[in-house]
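ARCHIVE CARD
SHELF: 3
SLOT: left
DATA:
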Amino acid sequence: MVSKDDAEKAYNILKDGGFISEAEQKKIEKIKEAEKMNTICPYCNSDNIAKKGTPGYILILSIFLLGLPLPFLRTTYYCFNCDKEWKI
């Protein structure tokens, strides 16, 4: 547990010490890529985005079958600049 400012330094120390394998390094790169996708639009590279939950088909199906809604919301992201939506 380190601060964001010291994260790169801590990562290099762990890597030099042999505590981070190549497989774990790929996982870390995927996490960084996913974090980037949460803050930047993949279509126009704008940071003017919002996260919104939209009802999925499971929510509607639960209303019909059980008579009550189960909170299954699908998380999507919306870009205000290019008006596109995507999910991760």
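SLOT: right
DATA:
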Amino acid sequence: MTSSPRFRIFQANATDEERLRQLYSEKSRDGAIQINLDRTPNFVDALQVEGFENGIFSVEDTQTGVIVGTGIRNIRKCFINGKFENVGYLSGLRVASTYRKSRAMAMIFIKLRQLYLKGECKGYLCSVFNSNKAALEILTSGKAGMPTFKRVGQLNTFIFKPKQIHSNINKNILIRRLETNDIDKFLKFLHSEGSKRQFFPYYTHNDLTNSSGLLKDLHNSDIIIAIEENEIISCLALWNQNTFRRWKVEGYSAGVKILRPFLNGIFSLLTLPRLPKEHSKFNYRLLSLVCIRDNDRNIFAELFNYAIHGLDKKEAVLISASFFENDSLIQVLPKFKFSFKSTILLGFWKETKSEIDQIDQRFPYIEAGSL
């Protein structure tokens, strides 16, 4: 008599939300500040900003009914070498601590390879906090069945209080909010300028006119544009995602937990954000759709100043801004800020190695609102 397999892989859906939340609620022990992405109230619905064809591939312990591991795969259209292509994005790679030595992660990647070999995308982008050493070790282990992960670069995420940035802009440049009749011209600009960056998202008219999808809850009035001689030359947005997903502090290392009151006193003097209580959410806006012609720091500063001017001064709002290392726009951000470092990887299997090798050295862009 043959016994049933201990583990089974399946594609989770809305009926599995509670079990998924149990897996993702497990506290990380890595780093001085442990943060986690909270996708409540609707785990599945929150995935739409990460791409289309969402797949929540989960491994269940058939003896307990518990979900012990999950990998979320989405497909996006991004610019690669100036042309838009399907690119996968992996998020939420998680294995319960008591199952780290099981086959759970291997089963997830076996499934991903099956989809990959059907030609669904060029490769799988993945973002991992540098403090998450266990995940980085697994992804770069080179174990049988695992994809090869190529380093795209280090993404620096800065958290800071809204503060005006010094700028010296040409007076002939108009700064204002995006309007409905700008959309066609705006898309033309995004495609032209965005194609100069590796992995810049390819947006459509539908993305900018629907309240759902890749730009869920991002309104035209949240997008700030710079216009010169009746042409859009730069843009950025402040994206409020708090209704469907938000980063929250899960915990602190023992040292930070003890020193938090003292540190918050110092941070207040330095105008740095205060460290919130464990398990609490913080109110922030994501700096998104950053597309600046020639990476002009003065135009970026003026757009940023215009955007934060519209924030409700009664709210304790923070700004979250993500830039790749060596991006010159980092130099004009406020001096006092927290930073979190992530490694961006591109995973692929040997069947498409030659295509991955052809990706050129254009500076990368990853939309923070879709991580």
